[in-house]
Design a protein that fits this description.
By secondary structure, this protein is α/β, with parallel strands linked by helices. The protein has 22 helices and 20 strands.
């Protein structure tokens, strides 16, 4: 066995598990593994300017590449600063490994006043990880790294935190770098698949609903093949946007909760639904049939109010999701792609001749739904149409603010994991940070960030990261003078506002100070040509757009 220090054992273990990129913010306790990275030129270090930025970047890297996103942060304040981004990855079930240092072993949990001391640091992470583990011996490092990757690649992916005391990273010993542990693949029960195939084969109006689990399983081709075989429309969610190209006739996209057309003419007429890799979240299940009610906080109380078809087949890797929000008629635990492959084989044996095409009907329904959206928010839809026309088809879009909100429903995407959004946890600043991680993961694809002026200021220091690594990312800042969605809500509920009007810098000058091509356009009509030029540029671009959207409910 070769002799090495803990820092080198950590880096070699990451390499053995296929890691090519690490996002890290250096602290004094991380010096050893950083030094070891000097000898591993096949692992690229990206050094952001904040810990939450580093973890959001690792999260986005995982989303667009399908690999594990890896970050390193230091004990105490650095660790605490990464918690919000870990919560985002946990809420959306993405595999992110956060390697966090700790004070030397002799001082653990004693509260003696050691610099950066963080008592019960491990407990901080247990709420936002699938596994939080403290390494107690230097020789344990390779085993712990392998276990972390095995857990992230088995079942429902959740972020993992490994805590390593500083003295273990500096200690030396004979260490064996073990090969990666193989993941355990959850295979669907053939008996349950046969039952599902019978239900779908006999359905008069079958419907497919796909969530983020379908994307994680790379099940897009199987989903499209199943839709074509059954001539069944597909409803997507925020997490599965683009799993099947949204210009396909049977792909209705993520417009169910925004358009009563889809609810009344598709969902409520369906007799059998196959739901794949979804938890039926609050936002995905709001009916449009009645005016929005509100709970005691003023939020919409319409989550889980849509009516599911009489027969609901639910396929998910996590059995804990069955019956949590909607009770399935048939529950199938397993990997989405494996389940769909087995379903296709079973259905092809049952369906002798092609079903009548539903393409024309679905095109008509999509047009009707789009007309409904335009009547509701015409300015937003017009802006998104111009953005779509300016961007290449393979662009990865990272969005937040009002534009990001409506992009979930009205900006067509043509590939999976091409739309990045803080869906459930809702971290401010995510869109800008995620665009950087996406560009690092997919350097040959266009990446564009759409931020509000308020959210952009949560992490605008990462402009330095873009400049340092020469990333040609267009960053669009929609400037409406504050947290406008909240501001409008305050006006509607209380007739006055507080804390939502913000003072911002001159964004053009700010961009120029970081070496960005920077410009301010007069409004939505001028954005598209500026954006098209920015995508083609070899340098980063900041575009400020002053837009005031009308309040909406």
């Amino acid at each position: 066995m070769p002799r090495m220090n803990g820092g080198k054992a950590l880096v070699e273990s990451l390499y053995a598990n296929g890691v090519e990129t690490v996002f890290g913010v250096l602290g004094s306790t991380l010096l050893r593994p950083y030094d070891a990275l000097c000898d591993r030129t096949d692992i690229r270090l990206i050094a952001p300017r904040s810990e939450d930025g580093a973890l959001h970047m690792a999260d986005a890297y995982a989303r667009v590449t399908g690999k594990v996103g890896v970050a390193m942060v230091t004990v105490g304040a650095g660790a605490a600063a990464s918690l919000s981004a870990m919560g985002e990855a946990y809420a959306e079930s993405w595999p992110v490994l956060n390697i966090v240092t700790q004070v030397p072993t002799p001082y653990l949990d004693q509260e003696k006043g050691v610099y950066h001391e963080s008592p019960r640091q491990l407990e901080m992470f247990k709420a936002v990880t699938g596994w939080a583990h403290r390494i107690r011996r230097m020789e344990e490092i390779p085993e712990a790294v392998n276990e972390a990757f095995r857990r992230m690649r088995t079942g429902r992916p959740r972020p993992v935190m490994l805590e390593i005391p500083a003295d273990l990273l500096n200690a030396e010993n004979d260490v064996s770098i073990a090969p990666p542990s193989p993941p355990a693949i959850s295979l669907a029960d053939p008996v349950l698949i046969a039952q599902a195939a019978d239900l779908l084969a006999n359905a008069k109006r079958p419907l497919l609903w796909v969530g983020g689990g379908g994307v994680k399983a790379a099940a897009g081709p199987e989903l499209k093949a199943l839709a074509d075989l059954l001539q069944a429309p597909i409803l997507a969610t925020n997490g599965s946007k683009g799993i099947v190209s949204e210009d396909e006739p049977l792909m209705l996209g993520n417009i169910l909760t925004m358009c009563s057309t889809i609810e009344e003419r598709v969902l409520e007429k369906s007799d059998v639904m196959l739901a794949i890799g979804t938890r039926f979240s609050e936002r995905a299940t709001r009916t449009r049939r009645k005016e929005a009610e509100a709970d005691v906080t003023g939020r919409s109380a319409k989550g889980w109010t849509i009516r599911m078809p009489a027969t609901l087949i639910h396929v998910d890797i996590d059995p804990g999701e069955f019956g949590k929000n909607y009770a399935p008629s048939l529950a199938i635990q397993g990997d989405a792609r494996d389940a769909l492959q087995k379903l296709l084989a079973a259905l092809r044996a049952k369906i002798a001749s092609p079903r009548p095409s539903g393409a024309a009907e679905m095109r008509e329904l999509k047009d009707a739904a789009r007309t409904e959206l335009i009547k509701r928010v015409p300015d937003e839809i017009a802006l998104l149409d111009s953005i779509r026309a300016a961007l290449p088809r393979d662009t990865i879009v990272s969005g937040q603010s009002i534009v990001g909100h409506w992009a979930r429903y009205a900006l067509e995407m043509y590939r999976p994991s091409s739309f990045l959004f803080a869906n459930t946890f809702g971290s401010m600043g995510f869109a800008f940070h995620a665009a950087i991680g996406a560009k690092i993961g997919c350097p040959d694809r266009p990446v564009a960030a759409f931020c509000g002026d308020g959210g952009f200021m949560f992490g605008c220091g990462e402009m330095a990261t873009i400049a340092h690594y020469r990333l040609n990312i267009p960053v669009v800042v929609i400037n409406n003078g504050g947290y406008k969605i909240l501001n409008n809500t305050q006006k509607r509920r209380f007739g006055r506002t507080i804390g939502t009007e913000l003072t911002s810098p001159d964004f053009v000058k700010l961009g120029e100070s970081f070496g960005f091509r920077s410009l301010r356009v007069g409004g939505a009509k001028e954005l598209a040509p500026a954006l098209k030029e920015a995508v083609a540029a070899s340098t980063p671009t900041l575009i400020e757009v002053p837009i005031e959207f009308k309040p909406y409910r």
